[in-house]
Specification:
84% helix, 0% strand, single chain
Length: 241
Amino acid sequence: MNSTILILALITFASTLLGGLIIFKFRKNLHYFFAFAAGSLIAVSLLDLLPESIELSKQINFPIRNLMIIVVCAFFLYSLLERFFATHELEHSHDEHGHVMGPIGAGSLILHSFFDGVAIGAAFHVSFAIGLIVAFAVIAHDFTDGINTVIIMLKNKHTKKTALTFLLLDALAPVVGIIATSAIFVPQKALAIILAIFVWEFLYIGASTLLPETKKHPSKGMLIAMALGIWLIIVVTSLIA
């Protein structure tokens, strides 16, 4: 790994960490971050993950219909999981443990961040210029990943310590992904399927878990925060379009 890639990996780590730490600093205004996270998760699903998954499928002649079936099945599975654990939580409402959907949602962001790192490493194999473009896009995008990771954990009633642990894992994930590109090969078909699963999971988290929180605070600020989350992803995805 050359020095440029190493520096970019460290910046990616710092970007994710900074995004998450900001939430703790402005915790009293957490509802605005809920709105921002909802907008960014929904936008990244439709403007980044889904197009990339479709593009990979086209390259390997994997039927798009099959890909969409995977997206729908992922939605159904995630709904079942949330329904099951929500029932479990009601039956054990005296427990001090947070909702298990927090680690599931945050874990998917960590895995997504890992593949962001893989994307950086792979891009540098193509050319130095493309590597830089992808790296800077991931750095900007991982800032929102840090925000989303902490918000999902706090929203699901986990402690600050647990949220910080998942934030640290999310910050390390792209660094590990960059390093892994020299040792691990991810088949395109597997990558396309993984991205398709993320599409609906992120849509579900944004629309079903975070978006309802914005309705509890009917103000223009909430709409602005959500619009900023969408706008940031539009800008970032435009850089690598």
